[in-house]
Structure prediction request, 632 residues.
Amino acid sequence: MKLELTDQQKMIQKMVREFADKEVAPIASELDEKGEYPTKTLEKMAKLGLLGIIIPNKYGGAGLDTISYSIVVEEISRKCASTGVITSVHNSLTAWPIMKYGNEDQKKKYLPILAKGEKIGAFAATEPNAGSDLGALRTTAELKEDRYIINGDKTFITSGPEAGIIIVFAVTDKKLGTKGISAFIIESDMKGYKVGSIFEKLGINASKTSELIFENMEVPKENLLGKEGEGFKIALATLDGGRIGIASQAVGIAQAALDESIEYSKQRQQFGRPISKFQAIQWMIADMATKIEASRYLVYNASYKKDIGERISKEAAMAKLFASETAMDAVIKAVQIHGGYGYTKEYTVERLFRDAKITEIYEGTSEVQKMVIAGSLLK
Amino acid sequence: MNIIVCAKDVVDASEMKIDSNTNKPILEGISKKISDIDKNAIEEAIKIKEKHGGKITAITVGTPDSKERIKELLAMGADEGVLIPYPEKYDYHIVSKLLAEAIKKINEYDIIICGEASTDFFSGQIGPKIAGLLNISQITYAFNLNVEKDKIIGERNMGENSVTTESSYPVLVTVTKEINEPRLPSLMEILGAANKPIHEWNADSLLNDTNTKIETIDIKGISMERKNIVFKDNIDDSVTKLVDSLSKDGVLG
Prediction:
């Protein structure tokens, strides 16, 4: 057993780290403050292949493994958690289900667009009354001749206002419960597609989150993803991968909190010496670093198992649960280490503090992750 | 245009710390990287190749693990790499001779590009020494290059002035960091680098005489300590005292 990144993965890490330092870090705070979507950053990322990390070469992507994908999301999130989640959703919640469940025509049509970043991806499952409980979906899709007519409202959709390609879940047969849910590839210019309210959020402000409203949206029959009734299965499998992305984002945020804390504690002088010389600070730093290391290995483990084709519901849930709680713990400590300064917008940890919370909530709350973990152990 | 780039694999000086007891740099555990200005050299080579075609060979005199960093140069756009592991003893002179011999072995070249100096020792000797050993012309400290079919025109940074120099080929150029912004390789280019060759040439096969002429006696950190003088009076008095104090230290000219 060798717990080490390959030379190639190290090179990717180095490249993305350099990119994040040069292109992401300098504008992260401004984008957060203005609530501005990182459109230009995404264009630059597309040129480096970062929007098609896992998409196979023949569809214009880099065709890389899940560990490389985790590395990219971590390194981007370390400088801007908003850009991190957009990257994660685009790759794992939009491209991946098309790669896995799409037919050849769908792959040829949509994957190159996603790989080139010509359109940004989104994933629309959540509704006002159906979050983790997908069985309660109310959006309907009715087949009429050569097209489905979709009606319903989706909410909390990451990149909602900016997305061009959206994976949408709707009920095609109510009688069948979760087996009556189907998945569709939607384009934002389809008739009847509308962006609803854009949410004002606590954090990840540069990633726009909105409602999507479908009013008699006309979707060509060939845009059904997989077969009718496979939607629930597709959603769960996709979210397993998505959770690796969010766990990676959480590791990135936590690492940033640690980086900032180390730097600040060595500079900040109190009682005649840097506060890093005090045990109270040292213990916080040590706790943060240890949990971050553990989180990262949980992420790599889930990624590795995904790459060798194992089912990863439990591993992805564990990684997401532990990494997101680590991120929250790390940002609380980081603000504490920064004292009054950490509470101001002058310091990065203030943004990290706000950004971390969502990782315990979206793509399944910590409580849902525990349900998944316990469920797989107590079968 | 066939271009050879000499790139050094160095410790990342931004990670380097000085041991407060011995005043020596702590080099263990520090990551390595291609010297910053050599990245400008490779970038310039790629730009020339993009315009005029040809082939880029990157040569590094380094340690066996320097291959990892050579791969980065291949990912950026070099076509092949050459690694010459350091002989047991070496100095600027030996490294220049090894590079010159390797260049002779490659034989076909129009332009050799080096960074003006490396970010670790910053001697600035290697480029000019290679030009001397190969008996070819050189344009040093170039911050702008204009490559034409029969000649190359370089603007050289001479501090407060610049000097424009023209040369025929072959030529050796050393570049400054102002010349360009090195690119980052894309994921696809990183993957593609795995298929590009890196040759390993032993120092023995290139040079018979590896006697060194320069001996490094010691490496020490420069200690910078704050005086921690705080002027707490009202602003006018404090400013007067600060100016007096700075004048006494002779830092106000």
User: Anything to note?
Assistant: Chain B has two domains: 2-206, 223-253. The CA atoms of residues 8 and 60 of chain B lie 6 Å apart.
